[in-house]
UniProtKB/TrEMBL annotation:
It is a multi-pass membrane protein. GO terms for biological process: detection of stimulus involved in sensory perception. The chain crosses the membrane at residues 219-243. GO terms for molecular function: ligand-gated monoatomic ion channel activity; signaling receptor activity. Keywords: Cell membrane, Disulfide bond, Glycoprotein, Membrane, Receptor, Transmembrane, Transmembrane helix. This is Variant Ionotropic Glutamate Receptor. Disulfide bonds join 143-199. Its main location: membrane. Residues 2-230 form the Ionotropic glutamate receptor C-terminal domain. Gene3D superfamilies: 1.10.287.70. Belongs to the glutamate-gated ion channel (TC 1.A.10.1) family.
Length: 252
């Protein structure tokens, strides 16, 4: 019993054991616990290194309010609803203030090249931005762009236009409603721009440099390691007791 208790405490405290256990079951249980502790500690150490090595990314702006406070040129596609709203906006509004630092032209490939070179930002809709990010990732296998977290407008609806008294309108509405209920259009859209998810993972491309106090959830992994170690050590301890009693009973 003393040997089992000594081995258990030595394993938990990380101390060297001068005498190895002689029972096979004790060796197996202790070896399994040591192997699992090594694997889990290696994973935690690797995650800690990744967090320390990852550089802090300070963005020049992350919302429309921050954008208008800078002198960054912003491309707005000519003739779009965004440009019309910007031109008609009051001077003191966000869109009105953006008007002084905006550039507009029709050449979309040129706008993408200028954006890649960092010569201006781009104010476009969500679908267009996803398409551009997806295409750039396919061409360069990298994510050189980022999107602001705070959107200026909410989602805009997409609809089909029919002439009045169109006889198939009710049937088409019914079919579209069923498709939307099952999420098929959204699934097809995400499938077409699947690379956007690779470029918009917050934990890799947008690390947060804000400090926060630790909570209980940050220690769940450590608690699991210690609880597993104590449980396996208890099993080793009980196994040693049972094997010791059985050995004493079999002795003449």
């Amino acid at each position: 019993m003393w040997s089992s208790a000594y081995l258990t405490l030595a394993f938990l405290l990380g101390q060297s054991v001068p005498r190895l256990p002689s029972a096979s079951a004790t060796r197996i249980m202790g070896g399994l616990w040591l192997l699992s502790a090594l694997i889990i500690s290696s994973v935690y150490r690797s995650n800690l290194k990744a967090m320390l090595i990852l550089p802090i990314l300070r963005l020049p702006f992350d919302s429309m309010e921050e954008l208008v406070e800078t002198n960054i040129l912003t491309y707005v596609t000519e003739g779009t609803m965004l440009q019309k709203q910007m031109m008609d906006a009051p001077p003191n509004s966000l869109l009105g203030r953006l008007r002084s630092q905006s550039v507009s032209y029709w050449d979309v490939p040129r706008a993408i090249r200028e954006l890649m070179l960092g010569r201006h930002a781009t104010f476009v809709g969500r679908i267009v931005s996803h398409s551009v990010i997806h295409r750039i990732f396919e061409q360069t296998n990298s994510c050189p762009l980022y999107t602001a977290k705070k959107a200026f407008w909410g989602g805009t609806s997409v609809a089909f236009a029919f002439r009045k008294d169109f006889p198939l309108k009710l049937k088409i509405d019914k079919a579209l409603r069923r498709l939307l209920e099952f999420g098929i259009p959204e699934h097809l859209y995400r499938k077409q721009v699947k690379n956007v998810r690779k470029c918009q993972k917050d934990d890799f491309t947008r690390p947060s440099d804000a400090l926060r106090p630790l909570d209980l959830g940050d220690f769940y992994g450590v608690f699991t390691v210690y609880a597993g170690g104590i449980l396996l050590s208890l099993l080793v301890f009980l196994t040693e007791i049972l094997l010791g009693r059985r050995a004493r009973r079999t002795q003449p």
